[in-house]
Each structure stands twice: as C-alpha cells, then as structure tokens.
Amino acid sequence: MTSFSPGFQGRGRRLADRLPPGQYPTESFPVLSAGPTPKVPTDSWAFTVTTELGATHSWTWDQMMALPQQETVQDIHCVTRWSKFDTRWRGVPLDAFLEDVETAADFAVVSSYGGYTTNMPLEDLLDGKAWIVHTYDDFPLSPEHGGPARLLVPHLYFWKSAKWVHGLRLTPEDEPGFWESVGYHNYGDPCREQRNWGD
Amino acid sequence: MALTWRPARLLERHAQTATARTLVLSVPGWAGHLPGQHVDVRLTADDGYQAVRSYSLAAPTNGERIELGVQSVPDGEVSLYLADALPVGADVEVRGPLGNWFVWRPAQTEPALLVAGGSGVVPLAAMIGAHRRVRSRSPLHLLYSVRAPEDVWYRSLLTDDDPSLDVSIIHTRKAPPGSDRLPGRITAADLAGPAARLKPTSPVYVCGPTAFVEVVGDLLTGMGLDPATIRTERFG
Lengths: 199, 236
Prior knowledge:
- The complex is a heterodimer.
- Chain A contains three helices and eleven strands; from the N terminus they run βββαββαββββββα.
- By secondary structure, chain A is mainly β.
- Chain A has a single domain, classed as Oxidoreductase, molybdopterin-binding domain (Sulfite Oxidase, Chain A, domain 2), CATH 3.90.420.
- In chain A, the strands form two sheets. In chain A, strands 1, 4, 5, 8, 9 and 10 form a six-stranded mixed sheet that branches. A five-stranded mixed sheet of chain A has the order 3-2-11-6-7.
- By secondary structure, chain B is α/β, with parallel strands linked by helices.
- Chain B folds into two domains: 93 residues, Elongation Factor Tu (Ef-tu), domain 3 (Beta Barrel), CATH 2.40.30; 124 residues, Nucleotide-binding domain of ferredoxin-NADP reductase (FNR) module (Rossmann fold, 3-Layer(aba) Sandwich).
- Chains A and B meet through loops of A and strand 3, strand 4, strand 6, helix 5 and strand 11 of B.
- Chain A: It holds the Pfam family Oxidored_molyb.
C-alpha cells in the first residue's frame, strides 16, 4: 500500500519501459513557448555560426536546403513531462554547418528569432546528435512548432531544441540561456531527470 | 537548491464549474511561490506506478496552504482523480514552485493585461489575488474568454469591488441575456481597448489552449505591441 493518492489506479504502464523517469506518453504535440510566435519568412531566414573569435559563417534558406538532407525518427521529451515517440523530421545535421568552422570552443549558445536562447556543450550538437529541421511528418514545420526551422537535439529535454533557430555562437565558457537562467537545469538530460537547478 | 517531492494533504475541494475544481492543499515546509507559478503533482498507485502532471497555483503564497486549479478532461489520467476521487484528508505529492518566467511580482507598478482562455485563468487568478493583497494601485485588466456564462471560474474574486481591476468576459458560444457582444472568438476589437491603456513596457500575460494563445499573440503583435512584453503559457 502507498500512503499517497488512495484509490488511484493509473493507466500509463504499458509504455513505461520506453519512457524516461517522470514522463508520460502523448499522441498530441503540445506547444510550449515563452512568448508569441514569431513569423519568419524563408526568404529572409538565415542561420549564422559565430566563433569565439567573431568569425561568422552564414547560410540562407536556399543554401541550407541545398545541403545534404537527412530524415530522422526520434523520441522527444519535454520537461513539462510529456514524451512523444517516433517523431519524424527532415533537416540538416549540425555537423554540416560546423565542419569548416575553426574553433577551440567547448560550448554553444543557440539563438532564435524572437530572442530565445539555450546553451549546451558543443559535443552535444555533433556526430549526428542534432539537426536543423524544417519538415515534420512530411509537412513544412509550422510556426508554433518552430518553423520555418528549429534545432532538434532529441537526447536533451526539448527546451534545448530551440524553435525559430537563427544562430549558434561558440563560446569557451558555458553561458546559461533563457530557461537555464530562470531555474531549468543547465544540461537537461531526460534519463537523469535533470529538470531544474539542483537536480 | 534542489526541489523535492513533498506530501500535500487535501484540505478542501470547491467546484468552480461543472468540471473544474479548486483543490486546497497543505504542504508542510512549503517555502512560498510567485503568482503565475505551477507545481507538479504526483500520484502513486498501489503497485508503485506513478503519474505526474503540472497544475497552476491559483492563489498567492499563503504559508503552507496552496490552491490548485484542476480542469477535469474526459480521458485525464490525473485530472479525473484529482477532480473527484482524491479523498479530503488524503495526501498526494507536489514538487515546486516551478516556472520563473510567467510570473507577476507585487513590486511591478506598470499597468498589466491578463488574457485568459478557459482554464488558463488559473495562474492569472493568483496574480489578481496577489495584486489585491498588496493593495496595488497599478491597473490590471483581465480579458477572459469562456464558452458560456456557466464556465466562469473565480466569480467572487472577479466581481469583488476592486477599483484597480477591470474584468471583461468574452463568450465564445453563448452570451448572457442582455450582452451587447455577440458570442464569438476573441478579436482585435476585444483587445484594442485594454491594450490602449498599456504603457510600452507593460507586461501582457496570455494563458490558455495553444490555439487561443496563438491567436491572441498574433493579434497583440499585429497591434504593434512589443513581442518581448508578451509572456505566454500554453496547454493542450
């Protein structure tokens, strides 16, 4: 017998093996954003990598679309406790943007149209672990889900997968981003349940 | 400081609408919260299975006493239990407070606009309660979209005499008799009046279902409000 919530049965057990701790599965695709949704036309879209020395490398929408594209199927995990299995995306691995960039930096701050930022170690963006995606389930990514293009870093909580991605700044020191500055965990590994400061 | 799970005992449950409840819980060791924040609630079944969902805090900080707003949804694994089955006097577990962005601080003095869709009114009620408790004279305007008159939560909070709070209720399906606005979804005309009374740096808080928040965000930015002043909380 538990001393909590007497009579609670629950129905979520069947997917427990596949879920990180404290998550529940959803079939829908909830939207969480800190502000209104920016509308970013693809003809003015750009993605810019800035090194720790200030050198910049930029791609227009057409240049990004001309890079080799990958399809990837991933489970995603939101810190608000929903997980969604087998989400299907199309985009460009971050490796393609970073292969010709000279850097000794260990960290990255990803920035978005609208001002959002999020940080992570650079190595979490490399070796096929992260993408800039523009297509979800065969449709152009909608604005509320981060379109025209968002970052996809599925091995971290989904706030790291910045919507409306605009730039990536390489930094020698780790610099907390938007949510990381107001209470969310700096790294955000769902398997270790790194939700908040101190987790 | 790490957040821990704390036992929370149900003291009272009040019906807000046919399907919405206020749960008043006592949480020993609760360190307080800001209006607009939420908590995670954890339920445990006899076999150890656990389910966790987030609920907004519906009232300003008040010692070890917290209030949650729970809208039961037809398939809600957790909401149905909280709305009707959890016995008064029994415990659940809570973890929080969470969310340090969608908050109104009593030190804020500029006019603020609150826009609620349905149960999105819950965190905004905590802001109104805190605003009233400190006798803030900064003007607050709540624009609250509901389907029908019987769907309004927090009637006494919203109708108590409060010279610095304006409340406008928008009915999307059924308006009360004598209403001079036809039922229908929120429009720019509904927002124009309250928005005109804001200062350029005034905060706007929008909470509701995703589709509602998207519409309101687009309308407000379309009126020229600085997107950086608009804070949103979406669900569903």
